[in-house]
Amino acid sequence: MNSKVNLINAGKYLNRIYADMSVSKLYYYDIQYTLSTTILEYRLKHNLTSKDMANYLKISPKMLYKYESGNYNFSLSQICDLCEKLKLKLNFSIAEIKK
User: Rounded to 5 degrees, what are φ and ψ at 55?
Assistant: First the structure.
């Protein structure tokens, strides 16, 4: 029996996936990741249970799960409301791409 396992290099794998992805999709996923991890980190930092955090945000625990897992498409208004509730400063910048 051969127990040798060949692991995939995650960096190379992600580079292959990202190579075919549009810039707008990359921006979208980056923002989604930042939002979801920020919400989760906030909850953990403040020792809140999922139920407590959901109650604080006035959403269901199921919705909080979607927020934290990155499976929710936030509107700009929701992002601003969330930052206000969590007392977070939102930094947003758009700049022309230089060729």
Answer: -60, -45
Distance CA 68, CA 22 (A): 24
Look at residue 10 in the predicted model and tell me its pLDDT.
Answer: 67
Cβ atoms of 89 and 83 within 8 Å: the answer is: yes
Return the structure tokens found at 57.
Answer: 């945000």
Quick count: other Cβ atoms within 10 Å of Cβ 4? 4
Q: What is the pTM of this model?
A: 0.75
CA distance 17 to 90: 29
Which residue, among 80, 60, 71, has the nearest Cα to 32 in the 3D structure?
A: 71
